[in-house]
Amino acid sequence: MTAYTVVVPTTGRDSLRTLVSALDHGMGPRPAELILVDDRPVPGDLPLPEVTVPVRVLRSGGRGPAAARNTGWRAADTPWIAFLDDDVRPTADWPSRLETDLATLPDDVAASQGRIVVPAPTGGRRPTDEERDTAGLATAEWITADMAYRRDVLAAVGGFDERFPRAFREDADLALRVRQAGWRLDHGLRTTLHPARHGGFFASVRAQRGNADNALMRRKFGPQWREMACEGPGRLGRHALTTLSGVAAFTFAAAGKRTSAVLSGAAWLALTAEFASRRILPGPKDPREIAKMAVTSVLIPPAALRHRLTGEVRVRRPRPAAKAVLFDRDDTLIHDEPYNNDPKLVRPVRGAEDVLRRLRAAGVPVGVVSNQSGVARGLITPGELAAVNARVEELLGPFGTWQVCVHADGDGCCCRKPKPGLVTRAAMALGVHPEDCVVIGDIGADVEAAHAAGARAVLVPTPRTREAEIEAARRDARVAGDLTGAVALAMGDRAW
């Protein structure tokens, strides 16, 4: 039997009772534990029925579903974590189908997505705008309404990025980082029902706050992030054109330029009417729904543009100085001696002792993240590796953490760079978040591992660094001529 924990972030909705009851009465292997993470700023009682499945309630302080899910999975100790939203209802056979979905997955598959079913409106009625929006979940990729991840993969990539404050994009971000780190994602056969959302008259306007999260996605994954996340093209360009046309119409009118004002106003009206009709025609011919679509179609374009611009400003602010600096070992801190098993051959690179001394004096934690496949290949013994690392510390001083991968390329571990495991473990050991770390190394795998963990990276090329790795680092990271320059980039304007 595959051991799993169910993690549910919740704001205390009444639908939580139905979800918990469904899990308790489901057919098949029961979860080892059901962890409910109360994400309300002021926690209260949860609407829970009497159940026999073990339930634990944790608090995440109102920091959003990404933080709540991190709180939940980090408290679990099973190989698999099944995430569910608090407004879904698993089918009666969900536990048995989850067992089937997980039992035969290859080691390189990190997660299994359940099938989301959104019930259609009753009586043959056409779906409203909100109902159509919810129905889109049935074809969405990698959503955590029902998504099971290997716990060691979550640990390797650092879990959810808590810079996503809403239930929006945080799941796609995790999936993309997991795939970039070399794992695959799969679809399962289990089914979960998701009722339509009903958020009130201005719900679609409030939803435009997600455009700020789109800015973060673009910052992290580049202009092609929508294609990578299996998303459509979006309407931000049209919303911007609509908003600018409206602003131009008012500006020209105020300046007494009637013809220009009329032309700009006509463009705004045409764009707004096109948007409203796209939302009205598929829906019910209810006057209240039509009025809602008309009003919100006027408000959505400027709201979307405002939130996107706010998000772009936020993600483009200079990131603060690193709270911790992680170094590759060979050809970064010491000259590379292939598969070195002799402490006498350890030779620090120029500037290593000085920058480490200055970082320690400034109170910046330092660590080492190093691939050492010579152990797996039988070329180095664990004792010899420990002796070489001890010599490094003898020459360069103590490090707050040593994170070393002794596996070979084909071992399928979660730690070997370019996978993020070494970086996330080092951050945890130093008591900081991965995004507050800078990784300094000499090859592309160091940069890729940093990005997969959510950290920053600085590449210090050597004659062995490939030109393609240098070009990639110039686009996506930073490049320094030597170790001193790399640490200066990591620390920014901070005095160190």
UniProtKB/TrEMBL annotation:
Segments forming a coiled coil: none
GO CC terms in record: cytoplasm
Protein family membership: Belongs to the GmhB family.
Gene Ontology biological-process annotations: carbohydrate metabolic process
UniProt source species: Amycolatopsis endophytica
Lineage: Bacteria, Bacillati, Actinomycetota, Actinomycetes, Pseudonocardiales
Pfam families in the cross-refs: Glycos_transf_2, Hydrolase_like
Keywords annotated in UniProt: Carbohydrate metabolism, Cytoplasm, Hydrolase, Metal-binding
GO terms, molecular function: metal ion binding; phosphatase activity
Residues in Glycosyltransferase 2-like domain copies: 6-126
Subcellular location(s) per record: Cytoplasm
Protein name in the entry: D,D-heptose 1,7-bisphosphate phosphatase
